[in-house]
Amino acid sequence: MPHAPLALTASTPGDFQRLKISPDHIAVWEDGARTDNARGSYEWWYFDAHLDDGSKLVIVFMNKDISTPGTPLAPLIRLNLDLADGRSFEKIANFAPESWSAAKDHADVRIGDNRFTGDLNTYRINVSVEEIEISVTLTGTVPPWRPETGYMLFGADRSLEFSWLPSVPQGNVEASYSIAGEAHTSAGVGYHDHNWGNAGLMKLIHDWYWARGQAGPYSVIASYITAHEKYGYAAIPILMLAKDGKIIADDASKVRFETEDEFIDGHTGKPVGGITRYIYEDGDERYVVTFTRREDLTRARMIDATTGLKRLVAKVARFDGAYLRFAGDCTIERFERDVLVEQHEDKAIWELMYFGHAR
């Protein structure tokens, strides 16, 4: 008799009932605080955008660093701003615990004077970190979505959880930002998701690819998660494809993932797919979503962000986690009976999070 998988997405009627959520509807409270900030838990609200002026923006409100979930509440904001003129800014701002508040009935996260708030359709984000000030409005054009319950479960008793809610799979963005008083305004396309869990990611997950993009009338969210060795390197594929704002494909059992042009990144030592591809087959219809790397935006070894005792402990434990972020092309193809009937291409950003040692 085959063994039950040690890592999977919770998807049974009992799972939905236990979690008090609907398989057909996402409630506003699901984007509110889902943890109590206790040791062992973590939570973050994420936003990214491609702006029409050529800039790329990422903002993350976190209740603690995901590499240290065993700590008490330790709020931080991560900010990446890459400009079309080649300038790049990466900020990590740490705050006192008393600066943090997060509503439970909807997304309303405050860290000092910074705020991330919304209702599954319209979000406003205001951030001031050192010389950079940003104000963003995100309005959804694709409805909120989650892969089944959104809960990924690990272990024989399935008690360990990592959860994910893409609250705005795609939306329109109006943004203003200033760098040391140098003011800019731009529109663009953005995305917001929300993550939380009750066990350290590096104890659950070996690595993941995660991507979002749009091309022509299509929007896509794609991920391929490989569980930790102790969970048999189980694979959790995820794909959401929408057309003209309506979700048309999201059955993980129909997804196949592959990479091409793999190489070892010289800085992090991690294997990277120059091309990552998600193939969705549904009878005579097949969608192929391909991400082709053109440039590296981030190549970071996680240990380099630690100091003192944390760094020493990480070295002793031989921790060599890495985070890589890429820019390139997203191509979406639709085939009918192996005949290409539709093809679209546009720019995209995606990431490789690598907690484990290179296999």
Topology of this structure?
Elements: E1 7-9, H1 13-19, E2 42-51, E3 56-62, E4 76-82, E5 88-94, E6 100-102, E7 107-111, E8 114-118, E9 122-129, E10 132-142, E11 151-154, E12 160-179, E13 182-197, H2 201-204, E14 205-215, E15 218-227, E16 235-243, E17 246-249, E18 255-264, E19 271-282, E20 285-301, H3 308-316, E21 322-336, E22 339-354
Antiparallel strand pairs: 1-11, 2-3, 2-13, 3-4, 4-5, 6-7, 7-8, 8-9, 9-10, 10-12, 11-12, 12-13, 14-15, 14-22, 15-16, 16-17, 18-19, 19-20, 20-21, 21-22
Verbal overview:
There is one protein chain. The chain is mainly beta and 359 residues long. It folds into 2 domains: 1-198, AttH-like fold; 200-359, AttH-like domain (AttH-like fold, Beta Barrel), CATH 2.40.370.10. The protein is 6% helix and 58% strand. Strands 1, 2, 3, 4, 5, 6, 7, 8, 9, 10, 11, 12 and 13 form a 13-stranded antiparallel beta sheet that branches. It is globular.
- Helix-strand sequence: EHEEEEEEEEEEEEHEEEEEEEHEE
- Count the DSSP helices: 3
The name CATH uses for the topology of the largest domain is AttH-like fold
**The CATH homologous superfamily of the largest domain:** AttH-like domain
Note the gap between the termini.
28 Å
Structural class: mainly beta
How big is the Rg? 20 Å
